[in-house]
Amino acid sequence: MIVEQISVGSDARLMGGHHRLVVSEAEAASMLNMARRTLQGKRLDGSGPPFVQLSDRRIGYAMDALQDWIRSRSVRSTSNATVRRIGEAR
């Protein structure tokens, strides 16, 4: 479901000729290859991508925020990986 859309050039992520600014929680979870409950947990503990409070009961994720979050978690080797569970010793 498209929450908000604008017309842009061909280099953007397109859906029906429009750039998708915000995607639903389900779409974001699918794009990140994780379960919705996992994404919800990350939102709750603050370890997930920034989200948009669209209404009292509706959450969305800006495409730019998802891309930035993925970039911030990208590493070149396992020695550079910093993903740890909350409370896990370093």
Can you give a write-up of this model?
With 90 residues, the protein is of the alpha+beta class. The longest helix has 10 residues, at 36-45. The model is unreliable at 1-13 (pLDDT under 50). Helix 1 crosses helix 2 (36-45). Strands 1, 2, 3, 4 and 5 form a five-stranded antiparallel β-sheet that branches. It has helices spanning 25-31, 36-45, 63-72; strands at residues 4-7, 14-15, 18-24, 52-53, 59-62.
Task: Write a concise keyword list for the protein shown above.
alpha+beta; 21% strand; 5 strands; globular; single chain; five-stranded antiparallel beta sheet
The counted number of beta strands is: 5
Order of helices and strands: EEEHHEEH
Low-confidence stretches: 1-13
Structural class by secondary-structure content = alpha+beta
Count of helical segments? 3
Tell me the major beta sheet.
5 strands, antiparallel
Taking all Cα atoms into account, the compactness measure Rg is 15 Å
Mean pLDDT rating: 80
Q: Report the span from N to C terminus.
A: 41 Å
Residue share in helices?
25-40%
Give the percentage of residues in beta strands: 15-25%
Which descriptor suits the 3D outline?
globular
In terms of topology, how is this protein built?
Blueprint: E1 4-7, E2 14-15, E3 18-24, H1 25-31, H2 36-45, E4 52-53, E5 59-62, H3 63-72
Antiparallel strand pairs: 1-3, 2-3, 3-5, 4-5
In short:
The protein has helices at 25-31, 36-45, 63-72, and strands at 4-7, 14-15, 18-24, 52-53, 59-62. It is an alpha+beta fold and 90 residues long. Strands 1, 2, 3, 4 and 5 form a 5-stranded antiparallel sheet that branches.
